[in-house]
Design a protein that fits this description.
The chain is α+β, with helices and mostly antiparallel strands. Helix content is about 70%, strand content about 10%. The protein contains 8 helices and 4 strands. A 4-stranded mixed sheet has the order 3-2-1-4, with helices on one face. Strand 2 (about 240-250), helix 8 (about 255-270) and strand 3 (about 275-285) form a beta-alpha-beta unit. The longest helix has 30 residues, at about 140-170. It is elongated. One of its GO terms (cellular component) is plasma membrane.
Length: about 300
């Protein structure tokens, strides 16, 4: 079982535990703000399950129908997560709207907030694991899950503050107001998750910082060639695709040109592990005015 799969399974288990704790905190207090926190955790569980399914599917090898692999399955999972976050926000807004007109008495606030705090600590720890490992393993599904949990942690802190203020002042409408703020916060998070995932589905190029690394590697390692041009990149889940034209002297043999390409590919693999690299070799008369000059 791969490390990504183990983390995805862990995310689902943590989500279920956190949901149970938050539902207990809501039942203890009757707070709409704590209910909104629990509703967001329901989304956490659903999206963790979707992320696990996507990770398992994305790990499948390329086949005749998917010659470039199944990497983009993780991006679909991240988009789904964004949509579900938006749905959760709308449900929370509905609950808060009703509570404005029929305020609910908050019972056992300190005990309930303490229980909810345990869930927030678990979420905070697991959020750090997901974001750290998601970046390390270049997994959009894990990253989206981690960023969502980070929003959940921020929301939970706001909920605790709001409930304490509502209890201290006796102003009942502060409780549903905090639920509204939670909903708006996760709406923004949902938009960010969907925007980043749609960018991957639309074959956006690699970040400029990574592109500069790619250019530097080509310039340093393509000794024996004149120039590289028409560099194109894209990412698909955990995989990166790099392709460019490499201009070599006309008298260079096929074997010599192949050796240059192998050297460049090996160096690029260190910068982009697991990347798919395509190099089109051309004679010197195909050089262009703009391109990567080989040192």
């Amino acid at each position: 079982m791969s490390r990504i799969t183990k983390i995805a399974i862990g995310s689902l288990l943590v989500g279920i535990v956190v949901l149970a704790i938050k539902l207990l905190a809501w039942r203890m207090t009757g707070s709409v703000a704590l209910l909104s926190d629990a509703l967001e955790s329901i989304v956490n569980v659903a999206t963790a399950a979707a992320a696990l399914a996507a990770v398992l599917y994305a790990r499948r090898p390329a086949d005749a129908n998917h010659p470039y692999g199944h990497h983009k399955a993780e991006l679909f999972s991240a988009v789904l997560e964004g949509v579900m976050i938006v749905v959760a926000a709308l449900v929370i807004l509905h609950e808060a709207w009703g509570a404005f007109f029929q305020p609910r008495q908050i019972t056992a606030p300190l005990a309930g907030l303490l229980v909810n705090g345990v869930a927030s600590v678990l979420n905070g720890i697991w959020c750090w694991v997901l974001i750290t490992q998601g970046r390390s393993l270049r997994s959009p599904a894990l990253l989206a899950d981690g960023r969502h949990l980070r929003t959940d942690v921020v929301s939970s802190v706001g909920v605790v503050f709001g409930v304490l203020v509502a209890v201290a002042t006796g102003v009942a409408w502060l409780d549903p107001l905090m639920a509204v703020l939670v909903a708006l916060n996760i709406l923004w998070a949902g938009w960010v998750v969907m925007r980043q995932s749609v960018g991957g589905l639309m074959d956006e190029s690699l970040p400029e910082e990574t592109l500069q690394e790619v250019r530097t590697v080509i310039a340093q390692e393509a000794t024996g060639a004149y120039q590289a041009h028409d560099l194109r990149t894209r990412s698909a889940g955990s995989a990166s695709f790099v392709e460019f034209h490499l201009v070599v002297p006309g008298e260079v043999s096929v074997n010599q040109a192949h050796e240059v390409c192998d050297r460049v590919e090996a160096a690029l693999e260190k910068v982009l592990p697991g990347s798919v690299i395509t190099i089109h070799v051309e004679p010197e008369d195909k050089a262009k005015r703009t391109g990567i000059t080989v040192r």
